[in-house]
Design brief:
Blueprint: H1 7-10, E1 17-19, H2 24-34, E2 38-43, E3 46-52, H3 53-61, H4 72-75, H5 89-99, E4 103-108, E5 111-117, H6 118-124, H7 135-144
Parallel strand pairs: 1-2
Antiparallel strand pairs: 2-3, 4-5
Length: 146
């Protein structure tokens, strides 16, 4: 099944990044300032992880860690699920649903090209949300905005 949208046409190109040696407090401040839900973690232009709001909530706050004393590399997700800019949006939604993720880095030839989020999918093709495993939380969010 194809949606007709290529990832390279709809991805956000201005990806916010940080380094694995940064402290969580600085990363969280950057996310708050930029009004984003994740940062891609890079090391010499190579993607080595992703840090999401959920990572901070579950691995820092819920565990009682001190954010100013916790490094990003200690709590970032290292298993990077990513997609190529040439793939179809339908494939991105499959990956998000299968892996229960809401942020999908777009990588081509080992280089970070962009990012696609579930909010991007909602804006472009809301019907595809049915394929995502976290759709109940998305539905709750949509219902609150009505």
């Amino acid at each position: 099944m194809e949606s007709g949208y290529k990832i390279g046409e709809i991805m956000v190109r201005d990806v916010k990044t940080t380094f694995q040696g940064d402290i969580v407090t600085l990363a969280a401040r950057k996310m708050a300032d930029e009004k984003i839900g994740c940062l891609v973690i890079t090391d010499e232009d190579k993607v080595v992880g992703i840090l999401t709001e959920q990572d901070i909530a579950r691995k820092v706050v819920a565990e009682g860690r001190e954010a100013p004393a916790t490094l990003v590399k200690e709590v970032m997700s290292k298993n990077i699920i990513h997609i190529s800019p040439n793939e179809d949006l339908h494939r991105a939604v499959e990956l998000m649903g299968q892996n229960n993720i809401k942020h999908l880095p777009v990588i081509s030839n080992g280089k970070l090209e962009g990012i696609l989020t579930f909010k991007d999918v909602l804006a472009i093709e809301p019907a595809l949300i049915e394929m995502m495993s976290f759709k109940s939380s998305v539905r709750d969010m949509l219902d609150k905005n009505k």
